[in-house]
Design brief:
The chain has five helices and four strands; from the N terminus they run αααββββαα. By secondary structure, it is of the alpha+beta class. It has a four-stranded antiparallel sheet. The chain is flat and about 90 Å long. It holds the Pfam family CENP-P.
């Protein structure tokens, strides 16, 4: 009988440890949730950070090195935006479920590709088995500017059904680039 009491206590301790771990993870997720910030807020934060680093650079990297790194990152971002045509305007994520080897997050993403606006909502399920991590996209919802082109609406429906983000971004990039060429051509003839 004494062993049953000890086992019950051990089970209760293990359940409490699991609950503490889950609450800690939930707290960390809430702290790290990404939200949309305007360009003005980002610039204010950068300037504030620059002022703080000017005061705290003693014994650390020089301010000029940090500025060079920032300029390099801005150049890389600018290149990627010009190369792909994508400009993301907002992103938010919310953790829906989290256990030791499984996490479900809900993402909202909006932006433009050349002149076409889009919004995405999807859930990302990440599962970890041993050292391997797999991710699955589900509940994909795509909202684009209303276009009369039925092929685009068919493509969006097919992409939502298959949950293929990669094919969406690849195809949108190509379509938006040619859409811009067609638009400029028609403007030329008007």
């Amino acid at each position: 009988m004494d062993e049953n009491i000890y086992q019950a206590y051990e089970d209760e301790i293990q359940a409490l440890e699991e609950e503490i771990w889950l609450l800690t993870e939930k707290y960390e997720d809430m702290r790290q949730e990404s939200t949309f910030f305007s360009d003005e807020e980002i610039l204010k934060s950068i300037k504030s950070l620059e002022r703080e680093t000017q005061e705290e650079t003693k014994g650390h990297e020089s301010l000029s090195d940090l500025k060079a790194q920032l300029e390099s990152l801005e150049t890389d971002l600018s290149f990627l935006m010009k190369f792909t045509g994508f400009q993301f305007t907002s992103h938010s994520k919310q953790t829906v479920e989290r256990t030791r080897n499984r996490m479900v997050q809900k993402h909202r993403l909006s932006g433009k590709c050349h002149s076409l606006s889009f919004q995405l909502e999807f859930q990302l399920l990440e599962m970890q088995n041993n050292e391997k991590v797999s991710a699955v996209v589900s509940d994909l919802s795509i909202i684009m500017e209303s276009r009369e082109d039925s092929n685009v609406s068919k493509f969006v429906s097919s992409t939502e059904e298959h949950g293929s983000l990669l094919s969406f971004f690849r195809s949108l990039s190509t379509y938006a680039e040619w859409y811009e060429h067609r638009r400029r051509t028609f403007l030329h003839f008007k």
